[in-house]
Task: inverse folding
């Protein structure tokens, strides 16, 4: 069936021969490469992925005399599609100046219109970015998608972290496969019960990830940038999302080739209300990479919906802690027993502690300095990590336990930012 062909094709290019020359062989010009989309199955079209030959994609992503590399663009870049590209004063000294002046950036990719048509019924598109790995970007993408769906909104979650697709696990969709319909690839839908407070309300949360195409959970995707970009484009051109209120796009960490290509592919599909949600942790080693992310948004003219500070502190009920004395011996049982006898109400308190130093005011101060919204702080809460491990909704599990979701204020801030007048461009 279509999903089986998809998985076999990914397996062929990820395990057999390292797929893209990862073992020292260059398969960029294999005889069996295809140009153009192959809609005969739910797999990946051709050796160049996404229906393009690899050499064509490389030409679009490598810096050369006839191509534009936005990663190396000047701060004052007017954009390669502008009539002033290569001629404006801000272009002086830019390595792309000659290519832009020759009109390289004005050659429109015909697939951009197809992508616009695919996403025309998506009201809000949110690109979740992080300057570095390990800050909880995918966790926030998954749990925000759950939380938005719990609001009765129609939500899609697109995982373009090609080499680290964790979204299927976090959404409880491990083992699911992609299905082909007459109009393209169909998202895999979450069917868990209890996601909404109103049990009669139907939840619409669709997911797409390369994780649904791999032969097994441990299969490595060993692809260079052009193949990854080709699959990202195929996700945008071939997935039939239908009408959505929100499409959340979980991206890889950093400001890599995939991010540049994604923004270029979405050039005609992004609305003024669309933009980026940037996830950070409080310490300077994370914030310095977030500043690069903000610089990326400025260069690509991508609106910043807000910055979210994750792992702001460790928070857990006091009764869940382990206690040790001065010599390291475990005294948890005795300590908890004494607390139960003398002041049991203390055990119900949430205890917190800083995990990372909040350098120079943390993400909030940085967002203020750059003139972009600060959406709030999310603690390092074991109940959030347990929900992700179980592929469950943290919002639903806390509601069923009679507790308040720590993500709810963030969701409300995100909804307000997306609905607000678009003004949060990085200056």
Result:
């Amino acid at each position: 069936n279509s999903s089986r062909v998809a998985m076999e094709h990914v397996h062929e290019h990820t395990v057999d021969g390292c797929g893209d020359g990862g073992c020292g062989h260059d398969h960029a010009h294999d005889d069996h490469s295809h140009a153009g989309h192959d809609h005969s199955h739910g797999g990946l079209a051709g050796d160049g992925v996404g229906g393009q030959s690899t050499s064509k994609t490389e030409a679009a992503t490598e810096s050369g005399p006839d191509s534009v590399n936005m990663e190396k663009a000047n701060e004052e870049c007017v954009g390669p599609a502008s009539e002033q590209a290569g001629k404006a004063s801000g272009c002086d000294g830019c390595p792309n100046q000659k290519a832009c002046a020759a009109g390289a950036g004005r050659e429109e990719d015909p697939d951009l219109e197809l992508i616009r048509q695919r996403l025309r019924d998506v009201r809000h598109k949110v690109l979740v970015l992080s300057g570095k790995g390990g800050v909880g970007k995918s966790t926030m993408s998954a749990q925000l998608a759950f939380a938005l769906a719990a609001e009765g909104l129609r939500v899609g979650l697109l995982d373009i972290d090609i080499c680290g697709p964790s979204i299927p696990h976090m959404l409880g969709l491990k083992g699911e496969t992609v299905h082909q319909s007459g109009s393209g690839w169909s998202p895999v839908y979450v069917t868990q019960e209890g996601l909404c407070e109103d049990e009669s309300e139907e939840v619409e949360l669709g997911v797409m990830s390369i994780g649904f195409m791999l032969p097994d959970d441990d299969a490595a995707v060993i692809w260079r940038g052009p193949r990854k970009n080709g699959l990202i484009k195929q996700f945008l051109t071939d997935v039939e999302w239908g009408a959505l209120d929100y499409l959340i796009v979980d991206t890889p960490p950093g400001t890599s080739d995939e991010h540049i290509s994604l923004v270029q592919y979405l050039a005609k599909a992004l609305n003024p209300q669309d933009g980026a949600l940037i996830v950070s942790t409080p310490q300077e080693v994370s914030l310095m990479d977030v500043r690069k992310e903000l610089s990326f948004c400025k260069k690509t003219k991508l609106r910043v919906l807000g910055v979210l500070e994750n792992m702001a502190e460790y928070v857990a009920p006091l009764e869940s802690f382990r206690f040790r004395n001065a010599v390291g011996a475990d005294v948890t049982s005795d300590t908890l027993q004494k607390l139960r006898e003398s002041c049991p109400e203390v055990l119900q308190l949430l205890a917190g502690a800083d995990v990372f130093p909040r350098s120079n005011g943390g993400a909030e101060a940085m967002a203020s300095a750059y003139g972009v919204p600060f959406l709030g702080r999310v603690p390092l809460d074991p109940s959030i990590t347990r929900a992700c491990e179980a592929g469950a909704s943290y919002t639903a599990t806390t509601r069923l336990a009679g507790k308040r979701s720590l993500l709810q204020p963030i969701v409300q801030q995100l909804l307000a930012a997306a609905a607000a007048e678009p003004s949060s461009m990085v200056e």
Notes: The CA atoms of residues 161 and 283 lie 24 Å apart. Residues 315-353 form one domain.
